[in-house]
Specification:
With 427 residues, this protein is an alpha/beta fold. The chain folds into two domains: 180 residues, 3-Layer(aba) Sandwich (Rossmann fold), CATH 3.40.50.1950; 219 residues, Rossmann fold (3-Layer(aba) Sandwich), CATH 3.40.50.10300. 32% of the residues lie in helices and 23% in strands. It is built from 14 helices and 20 strands. The protein has an eight-stranded mixed sheet with strand order 13-12-9-14-17-18-19-20, sandwiched between helices. A six-stranded parallel sheet has the order 3-2-1-4-5-6, with helices on both faces. Strands 7-8 form a two-stranded antiparallel sheet.
Amino acid sequence: MTGDSTAQAPRILLVVGGGIAAYKACELVRLIRKGGASVTCVVTEGGQQFVTPMTLAALSENPVYTTLWDLRNEAEMGHIQLSREADLVVVCPASADLLAKMAAGLADDLATTLILATDKPVMAVPAMNVRMWQHAATQRNVAWLRESGVEVLEPDEGPMACGEYGPGRLPEPEAIWAAVTARLGADRASHPLSGQPDFDTAPDHRPLYGRHVLVTAGPTHEPIDPVRYIANRSSGKQGFAIAAAAAEAGARVTLVAGPVALETPHGVDRIDVESAREMAEAVDGALPADVAIMVAAVADWRTRDVAGQKMKKARSGLPELVLAENPDILAGLAAGEARPGLLIGFAAETENVVDNAKAKRERKGADWIVANDVSGERQDSVMGGDHNLAHIVTAAGVETLDRMPKTELARALMARVAQHLEPDDTE
């Protein structure tokens, strides 16, 4: 996920049509709210036979609208205001009758009136009997709606409440929410806490709740010319696993990622960068943080001058590359006024792993250094692989963790971070 987490949350207008599948609208509202978006519900007369406005109001924490003839709202043209305030109108479930009215441009109730009046994108999620879905009239209406710019999702196939089997089932709420966020153009509605477990579980299951964890991951690319750069073999897998584990533990997570092709973990606010200087700037902008875990393999040097055009081979000899030192992000954090309470660095070593890590911890001013041996054949190397063997170097000593998947190492590290941050009951 990218973008400014302080941006206004997306606003969704949910039109709940009639049909047995209307009960799934309650779960969809919960997912929308959990994802950081706001939702206002409009329920048709048919929809009210299956789900009550009071239930949707409690879940959405917004008023629910059911009639066009609300004089207080209509004095201010409430149906127009509703249709224009939203970023996306979602019709779910969309019955055959409601799809037909939308295709014909009818406006005989609040739902169809605001759908016709809106200037915002509309998404319809059909749910009906298999024969109704396959009927030529319904397929014609769907085609017309799609030609008009309405995004009509395909229904799921499976057993139905009527006893028949085939396409026409409402997709699961998680799939609908994924389609909504894709239409909005941002993973999980650009909210940094989306995708995290509900916070009504036991506190022991979210020991980092209320904490801000800053993680860097991946390599940096230092340009030489428009097509060449200085880099390393870091895949970013360990840093991404740590960001995911921190989010699982309830933290607000900012992930500053170098150029890697990895999916953003759920619940993580991602900032993409390319060079070491860009990463240093992004890290500084993400402060303050309770914990900073600098996993990225940042290039120590960059070319002092970047060629504006591709450098050509010359018979006169090799081109001269003058190097300049990149900013030391870890040392800069340690010495800065906004130093995180717990500062953890990573060390990729090929020899004297623990001794070099101890020296790095003292030299950089970090609290912990997580050291790993990146020597060996490339196919077996930590860099780019899915497993890691790490040594956690602290002021108290060295703890060696067995070789394990990077995801498990990330959880083990987060458990130790949470334990370190626990208040001392003896004080």
